Amino acid sequence: MPLLVTDYSWTQTDSMVYVQVPLKGAKAGDVDIVSTDEYVKVHYPPYLFEAFLFEPVHDDRSTAKLGDGVVVISLPKRSSKVWENLMITTNDKERKREIRQQALMKYQEKLSAESQSKAEKKHAEKKYALETMMKLEKEERESIQKMKDAERDKTTAELAAWQLRQKQQAEDEEAQVKVQSPSQGYQSRSNATGVETKEPGRSEQRRNNETKCKRKEVDLPAPRLTGNINVTFTPRVFPTALRESRVQEEEEWLRKQAEARQVINADVEELKDLKEEHRNPDWLKAKGDKYFANGDYLSAVNAYSLAIRLNRKTPALYSNRAACHLKLRNLHKAIEDSSQALDLMTPAVAANAVARARASVRRGSAFCQLQLYAEGLLDYQAALKIEPHNEALQADVQRIRDIIQGSAANTDTQGDA
């Protein structure tokens, strides 16, 4: 049974009532305060102070301040008049129980409304951030498309101008050839002294050029012969006892990895304009890793996303992008990418054990940041099963367990109060 606090004090003005309750050495985090328009409660085990107010107050404007071993509760009066007492003087326990129950119900409704308001505000903020991000990405895509179109139009115009010049030059040469006499091998002209000399005509120059070109073609070496080189590999040997052998799973994993390296979606229309290196998933992954190391997480996400569009079978791309989403606080996307990476890392073998542990930790971290501690604990335990001697993982698992147990203990304490 709680001990009732009797050494409280109170003062009043025409519009306010101030109540001071000593905390008796209790910490601020252990004090539970409930305030409504007719009831005030301060509970810090094993002590309890409750007041059935003499007159109603404005609950929405009431405040409570903790400090120097005392809590000061400020209650704005609804009517500007002096109270005879702080509390009602009735000894009717049924009446007090009714007031207490109504006050607690109002307080719970108030907390529920505040929680719902916070959730709606948080949802609206997330929605606004997502819409803003989508708008920025759309503008960026449109800007890139405009640059591509402008570059394409410029290149097309330059090509058309070059073709027109070539055509005009060919027509000029053909016109000059027609002006000359077909049988004329030399043209006559007068030099500065009036003596007429002869020089080779255009037809003769053209024949000389053709002769030189033919001579050069004759001097070129013959093309090399083509052929195929057969490459064989020795089978991989797994040093594992026969009763514990997982050769079949290991071979399946290696086959999937080989297929993943060969699958490239080169038929995506909008990717055909990219450079050859930009259509290489390995090059893009290395670029994303470099961006991540430099703290440019948004650029790393773009690099990993383009690599995933080219090759959707590589789990490392999803796992690395999940790490970027964790840094950017895109927690739901981090969970989605980590789950996709874990789905691709099947069967579970020693070759992908480290990668599976890393993806599990990233998904568990995202769950915990969303306050889904039970789901996060499962992922951390899965990673700890792979690396049982990892002290950091052991500490994280224990910390999550303490949070879960602390939440349950707090719930029980509030129910008792």
TrEMBL record:
- The TPR repeats are found at 357-390
Give me the Gene Ontology terms describing cellular component: dynein axonemal particle; extracellular region; neuron projection; nucleus
Stored InterPro entries: CS_dom (IPR007052), CS_DYX1C1 (IPR037894), Dynein_assembly_factor_4 (IPR052004), HSP20-like_chaperone (IPR008978), TPR-like_helical_dom_sf (IPR011990), TPR_rpt (IPR019734)
Q: Which Pfam families would you find in this protein's record?
A: CS, TPR_11
Compositional bias (Basic and acidic residues): 196-215
Positions of region (Disordered) = 165-215
**Keywords assigned:** Cell projection, Cytoplasm, Neurogenesis, Nucleus, Repeat, TPR repeat
Q: Where in the cell is it found?
A: Cell projection, Neuron projection; Dynein axonemal particle; Nucleus
- What domain of life? Eukaryota
Please list the GO terms describing molecular function: nuclear estrogen receptor binding
Task: Report the main location listed first in the record.
Answer: other
- The residue stretches assigned to a coiled coil in this entry are none
Protein name as annotated: Dynein axonemal assembly factor 4
Species source reads Channa striata
